């Protein structure tokens, strides 16, 4: 996905008009991202005291693309920060939205929004629903969400760079799922009475190679 995002940005701006640097969280593989992008990617800890002043000094706009760290208040209040979220805000905020879309029968989708100090709660620039079928698992649902993310990113990158876009606030009831909620799904009560449908939904919600590595870790 990171290579697609880079291409979309470069295709949307005049050559040399925008200077772009790439960073990843300390939990990610900076060397792997550098190889994929063909650009240097540096790992930074957004919580480090020296990082926020550096970002404020060097940049006018910051994109968060599946970042694994929450941006601090000092950053989002002083720089325009835009987040690409693999969930349909405000209904499905937080970690692994496709998992909870399956488990809780929630809308599946992608959201592009301004960032605030509250996780996935800033004003919405654009969002898109994608179909969730009874045969989808976490992987197939996630792949469709990524395609939707790239679509709304491509549609909105130019007005974002030019500062010529409008935002809105979704009026749906917010739901936020944290990493602890996802990990709780691992704890199976073998004596709990559930329907076959609930069992199947639980299994397909956890069927994703990356999540299975997290579970086993």
TL;DR of this structure?
This protein has 217 residues and is α/β, with parallel strands linked by helices. The protein is 41% helix and 16% strand. It is built from 9 helices and 8 strands.
Task: Supply database-style keywords.
single chain; 217 residues; alpha/beta; Rossmann fold; two-stranded parallel ribbon; globular
Topology at a glance:
Layout: H1 2-12, E1 22-24, H2 30-37, E2 41-43, H3 51-58, E3 61-65, H4 73-76, E4 80-85, E5 93-94, H5 97-104, E6 108-114, E7 124-130, H6 138-162, E8 176-177, H7 179-184, H8 196-205, H9 209-216
Helix pairs in contact: 1-6, 5-8
Domain N-formyltransferase dimerization C-terminal: 181-209
Protein name: Formyltransferase family protein
Domain Formyl transferase N-terminal: 57-153
Profile the largest sheet. 4 strands, mixed
Task: List the secondary-structure elements in sequence, H or E.
Answer: HEHEHEHEEHEEHEHHH
Strand order within the widest beta sheet: 3-4-6-7
Envelope shape:
globular
Q: In angstroms, what is the radius of gyration? A: 18 Å
Tell me, what is the CATH class?
A: Alpha Beta
Q: Remind me, CATH topology? A: Rossmann fold
Whole-number mean pLDDT: 89
Helix percent reads 40-55%
- Percent of residues in β-strands: 15-25%
Task: Explain what this protein looks like in three dimensions.
The protein starts with a helix and ends with a helix. α2 links the parallel β1 and β2. It has a single domain, classed as Rossmann fold (3-Layer(aba) Sandwich). The protein has a 4-stranded mixed beta sheet with strand order 3-4-6-7. Strands 1-2 form a two-stranded parallel sheet. Strands 5-8 form a two-stranded parallel ribbon. It is globular, with a radius of gyration of 18 Å. It is built from 9 helices and 8 strands. The chain is of the alpha/beta class and 217 residues long. This is Formyltransferase family protein.
């Amino acid at each position: 996905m990171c290579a697609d995002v880079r291409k979309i940005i470069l295709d949307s701006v005049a050559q040399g008009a925008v200077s772009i640097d790439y960073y990843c969280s300390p939990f990610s593989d900076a060397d792997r991202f550098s190889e994929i992008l063909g650009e240097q990617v540096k790992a930074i800890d957004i919580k480090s005291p020296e990082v926020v002043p550096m970002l404020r000094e060097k940049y006018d706009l910051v994109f968060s693309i599946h970042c694994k760290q929450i941006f601090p208040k000092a950053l989002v209040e002083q720089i325009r920060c835009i987040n690409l979220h693999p969930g349909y805000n405000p209904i499905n905020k937080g970690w692994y939205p496709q998992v909870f879309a399956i488990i809780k029968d929630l809308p599946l989708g992608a959201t592009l929004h301004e960032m605030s100090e509250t996780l996935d709660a800033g004003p919405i620039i654009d969002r898109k629903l994608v179909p969730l079928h009874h045969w989808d698992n976490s992987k197939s649902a996630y792949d469709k969400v990524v395609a939707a993310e790239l679509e709304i990113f491509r549609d909105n990158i130019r007005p974002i760079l030019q500062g010529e876009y409008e935002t809105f606030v979704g009026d749906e009831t917010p739901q936020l799922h944290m990493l602890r909620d996802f990990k709780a799904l691992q704890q199976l009560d073998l004596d709990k009475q559930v329907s076959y449908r609930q069992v199947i939904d639980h299994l397909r919600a956890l069927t994703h190679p990356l999540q299975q590595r997290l579970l086993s870790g």
